[in-house]
Amino acid sequence: MDSRKIADELEKRHPSPPLHLDSPLLPEVLAILPKAIAPMVPVIMPLVPRVLLSPTSAEYFERTRAVRFGMPLEELEKSEKGGETAWKAASPHLTELGHVLKRNLDGPFVMGTTRPARSMPVAEFRLISVWPAAPELPQS
């Protein structure tokens, strides 16, 4: 089951508080986000076990991702696809996402101060974009 189906089912079963799945900006965000995330995998994936997971979960995550990517996450991070290369590849899509988000200046989410269920990946990406190791991205 994909995340949209899950969100639709949650909205149906638990309509309050609403998930705001009908935001007019959401289709744009959802079209841009995968293009921004894909090149960032070598940057994002190694952070997950270091920052978010318990040691047991981190070991499983690292082992299964090494199989998925054909190399340990540490190597993926240091590969030619990681680092500044990843940021440069994601930059135009992050800039495009920023333009969409700036259309609503009432708050940090796609819908201003209301957090729709689908804003979390955007919020996570905003967090990563200010990560201390992140190179400067063009401001626009």
In words, what does this structure look like?
It contains 7 helices and no strands. The chain has 140 residues and is an all-alpha fold.
Please describe the topology of this protein:
Layout: H1 3-13, H2 26-37, H3 41-52, H4 55-69, H5 73-78, H6 83-102, H7 120-129
Helix pairs in contact: 2-6, 3-4
Q: Which stretches are low in confidence, meaning pLDDT under 50 for 5 or more residues running?
A: 127-135
Helix content: 55-70%
**What is the terminal separation in angstroms?**
36 Å
How is the quaternary structure best described? single chain
Order of helices and strands: HHHHHHH
Global geometry? globular
Q: Report Rg.
A: 17 Å
Count of DSSP E strands? 0
- Helix/strand-derived category reads mainly alpha
Number of helices: 7
**Main sheet attributes: strand count, strand direction, barrel closure:** none
Strand content: under 5%
What value does the average pLDDT take? Answer: 79
Brief digest:
With 140 residues, this protein is mainly alpha-helical.
Features:
about 0% strand; about 140 residues; 7 helices; single chain; mainly alpha
